[in-house]
Amino acid sequence: MHAERRKKALNLPESLTYTVASDAPIDGKEPVGDVVQKLSLSTWCAGFHSGGGHAPTITNVSESGGDAEVLLVVPTLGERLGYLRETLLSIRAQSVPVDVVIVAPSQASRVTDLAKEFRADVIDDPGGLPEAINLGVSKGLVRHDFVNWLNDDDVLEPGSLKSTIDALHSNSSAVVAFGACRYIDSHGSELWTSRAGRWAPRILAWGPDLIPQPGMLVRAWAWKEVGGLDSSYRLAFDLDLLLKLKKQGSFIDTGQVVSSFRWHPDSLTVDDRTRNIAESERAKRAALGPVARRLAWVWEGPVRMATRIAAREVNRRAMKASTR
Questions:
Q1: In the chain, what are the domain boundaries?
Q2: Is the pTM of this model over 0.85?
Q3: 248 phi and psi angles, rounded to 5 deg
Q4: Which fold does the domain 3-322 belong to in CATH?
Q5: What is the mean pLDDT of the chain?
Q6: pLDDT single digits (tens) 298-321
Q7: Residues 6 or more apart from 157 whose CB is under 8 A from it?
């Protein structure tokens, strides 16, 4: 069905770099006229946040051209434009075509400017994060085979979409492809890398959620079958979605680092850990059978403790990095 699409997709190597142009110094070197350099995503992020000048502009990344299998939704309030630019750049730096829908408040005029620069559609925020994501997905669900969302402070690693698309093409029974995820601080420095791999789906219903949402890819028909995100959740709607998708098919690990999650005080997941844990336990209990549901208290305590310990460790690393 998609052989023609795959032929049209750009075939860049896994060690993807992309070209940016800037009239500002890069790595402390004064340019002569326009500067064109090839940068990895981590280098670009670090340079942008170091205050080294104007943000780079895209010159040779892939475009959708109407042949995209993938739809990515980027919800934003328009308050973190620097991070949002990094997010959009990481999407457009992928080696496959992608359609992008940004969901933002109507008054966020600077988001509209970014959308034009990165060839993305913009729709008005209906209020509420899961509602925004559902609305964005609904705008292109019938035209795409794979969907996901990327928050406005997270980024895709080079080669991310190619790896998840290839994984789903190679396994027709899989409904979700995922990979490892870096935890980065506000400046883009790595704090931790989550590599749960094939164990993550096995413990999803009772243990910690180790499937990183940024960078995963979901079959569009499966998203539609489970009804998308449940807006009764404020934080754990991604876990609830995964638990429902598990009943639709298998999950497949790409074995690669496919995304970076930004760990900072403004992040919803970081900021409200207690509520996130409570919502996660509600989602897991809903997915369990009657007998297992009555026994859930046996493992909920240890999982809750392990989750808090892991969060404290990442916080410790983030605070240590901020003092360097």
A1: 3-322
A2: no
A3: -95, -20
A4: Spore Coat Polysaccharide Biosynthesis Protein SpsA; Chain A (3.90.550)
A5: 76
A6: 555 566 666 555 555 555 555 565
A7: 41, 90, 182, 215, 256, 257, 258, 259, 260
